[in-house]
Amino acid sequence: MEPRIQYAKAADGVSIAFCVMGEGRPLVYTSNVFGDIRWYLGNDATRSEIDRLIAGGWRIVRYDGRGMGSSDREVSDFSLEARLHDLEAVIEFLDIERFVLCGYGQGGPVAIAYAARRPKRVSHLVLVNSFAQAATFFERIPAMRALIGMRAMAEEQWIFFTQTMAAAATGFDDPAVARKRAELVRDSISPSAFLAFLAAAEKVDVQEHLAEIEAPTLVVLDSSGFGTEDLSRVLASRIPRASFVAADDYPSVLHAFVLNETLARSVAVGTPSGTAVILFADIADSTALTERLGDSAFREKARDLDASLRGVIREHAGTAIEGKLLGDGVLAVFTSARQAIEAALACARSGEDAGLPLHLGLHAGDVIREEDNVYGGAVNIASRISGLSAPGEVLVSDIVRGLARTSAGVTFEDRGEQTLKGVGEPVRVWAVREGEA
Questions:
Q1: 213 with 347, same domain?
Q2: Are residues 183 and 325 in the same domain?
Q3: Counts for the chain of helices (H) and strands (E), in that order
Q4: Were 214 and a residue from 55, 83, 119, 153 both cysteine, which residue would form a disulfide, CB within 3.0 to 4.6 Å?
Q5: Are residues 273 and 255 in the same domain?
Q6: CA 7, CA 13: separation in Å to the nearest integer?
């Protein structure tokens, strides 16, 4: 069934075309560069993804941004603020109080800005192949750099330009799909509007909003469009409560994430068998420190250190587990052993600087995620390894050493097999030493 197109009036008077498909929990997509309704109707892959979500019980809201698709074409303002007007017009027209917001590609910055400004409206945020700073995105993606260089020919050689752009987006390996997408682009937006959109898009920078986002966030990298792992990981590391996953089946990932089902890959991309790298950091001899400093002074220093450790974890693309109550320490999960080791070493330095040295331990294994907690035998082993370390020392299991020994830029000192409480078999443990391997 074809979607019924309706119209909402933006704050600056522009008419925005939108459609609502399916019944159930609302999922709103911010408009990408060529409009979402036209793209849904004309792109088989997009239509298949959305139809699966509709069948899964989602109420999908999509709209064509200003200057494209079925929305008003005679516009010149494509600024971030103007594009936020488009989204707000649709939300207000439908009177949706709370919803999942998804930003794909160029729609990501709009979703980020809206989620930061309207935290009570956005229950979950999903960002697919997106970015926070457009200048970095255009510089980092070879195909985007090429398109920027070709923009002068867009108006005079629009067909050639769109075919080249579509071929780049499909990896130059499916000419038939590229031709169809190029036709869809030309049907969705004029050359002048595309160039005006591109000029405005290059100036977009929503980095300041990342730390303001309150909604649980899923950052997805898939192979369907322009995107890089490093830009996606930057988003995940700088947004509180964000997870990162590399997966081409993003409808299933989105569904699982929002419904709080187990999503092991969201904490395990880059490690084998869907495992996560787990970090335990605990203040050494906290009882003696409390007696020496006094309870009030120790609590204040511990709170400051906790904030510092969580910042370190985010900077290294890790996720601090908010629901785990550790008293004088933190628990975090990572997607790579290298980043986990780098974070552990940085945490050790933060502890020393604060005068609160830490016990630090790392292990890798399967975890079970439930809401804001992680569970499983691997979590217990990481905790036990942490308890073996000397203050300020980082100990890792043999599994973590094997994952990181060629990439972490550190050396490992063998501490032999250790018997851990509650663990059936001995675990080989290694001390991390900074310096080239």
A1: no
A2: no
A3: 17, 17
A4: 119
A5: no
A6: 12
- Look up the domain containing 38 and give its range: 6-261
Structurally, the chain folds into a number of domains equal to 2
* Pairwise CA distance, residues 288 & 123, whole Å: 43
Q: Give the pLDDT of residue 265.
A: 35
pTM here is 0.60
Query: Which strand ranges, in their side-by-side order, compose the sheet holding 122-128?
Result: 6-9, 15-21, 58-63, 25-29, 99-104, 122-128, 217-221, 242-246
Rounded CA separation 126/218 (Å): 5
Residues 271 and 238 in one domain: no
Structure tokens at 417: 């097999």
Can you tell me the distance from the alpha carbon of 215 to that of 153, in angstroms, rounded to the nearest whole number? 42
Is residue 357 within 8 Å of residue 389, measured between CB atoms? no
Higher-confidence position of 186 and 2: 186
CB 125 within 8 A of CB 99: no
How many Å apart are CA 76 and CA 12, to the nearest integer?
Answer: 12
Could you give the residue ranges of the DSSP H alpha helices within 141-274?
A: 142-154, 158-169, 175-188, 191-201, 207-210, 229-238, 250-258
CATH of the domain at 305: 3.30.70.1230
